[in-house]
């Protein structure tokens, strides 16, 4: 069983708890985008880039950063800002690289070049309580307008039910 398989049987996390897996983090990021850009979704290629970046950052925090201590997705003009908190103070040596893939295939080392190429405004900050936060901006372009079968633009999102 993988961590993603185990997460299906775990109780649902609270809104403030970090997601237990990269798959759960991707789902959270996608839910934020779907809610914010409802009716005018971003370009599908950009959503794939977002999911790749989320996967890499969260997996790195879990594998190399002492565990995922927090995960934030914030819609901003032109994209989504991600903040991934982990428990390690070590700054990845490749974090400020050129984005070029490794010259020799060793089975790893492709994550940071991918992150660098797909994001903007990358920063690594120490956390006062220990560990670090990696922040990036993932650009999201608007998708081409969709037309309905009647030839009109797709309607805006349906109203969401209010709190009970």
Describe the SSE topology:
Elements: H1 3-7, H2 22-36, H3 44-64, E1 68-76, E2 79-86, H4 111-118, E3 120-126, E4 132-139
Antiparallel strand pairs: 1-2, 2-4, 3-4
- How do the helices and strands follow one another from N- to C-terminus? HHHEEHEE
The number of strands is: 4
Taken as a percent bin, the fraction of beta residues is 15-25%
User: What is the alpha-carbon Rg in Å?
Assistant: 18 Å
Could you characterize the architecture of this molecule?
A four-stranded antiparallel β-sheet has the order 1-2-4-3, covered by helices on one side. It has helices at 3-7, 22-36, 44-64, 111-118, and strands spanning 68-76, 79-86, 120-126, 132-139. With 164 residues, the protein is α+β, with helices and mostly antiparallel strands. It is globular. It is 30% helix and 20% strand. The longest helix has 21 residues, at 44-64. It has four helices and four strands; from the N terminus they run αααββαββ. A hairpin with a 5-residue loop joins strand 3 and strand 4.
Gist?
With 164 residues, the chain is of the alpha+beta class. It is built from 4 helices and 4 strands. A hairpin with a 2-residue loop joins strand 1 and strand 2.
């Amino acid at each position: 069983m993988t961590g993603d398989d185990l997460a299906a049987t775990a109780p649902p996390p609270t809104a403030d708890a970090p997601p237990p897996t990269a798959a759960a983090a991707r789902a959270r990021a996608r839910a934020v985008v779907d809610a914010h850009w409802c009716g005018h979704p971003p370009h599908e290629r950009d959503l794939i880039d977002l999911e790749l970046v989320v996967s890499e950052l969260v997996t790195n925090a879990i594998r190399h950063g002492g565990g995922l201590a927090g995960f934030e997705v914030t819609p901003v003009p032109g994209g989504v800002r991600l903040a991934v908190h982990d428990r390690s103070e070590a700054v990845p040596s490749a974090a400020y690289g050129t984005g070029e893939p490794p010259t020799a295939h060793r089975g790893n080392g492709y994550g940071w070049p991918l992150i660098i190429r797909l994001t903007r405004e990358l920063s690594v900050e120490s956390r006062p309580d220990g560990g670090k936060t990696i922040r990036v901006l993932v650009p999201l372009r608007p998708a081409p307008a969709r037309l309905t079968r009647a030839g009109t633009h797709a309607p805006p999102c349906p109203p969401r039910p209010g709190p009970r």
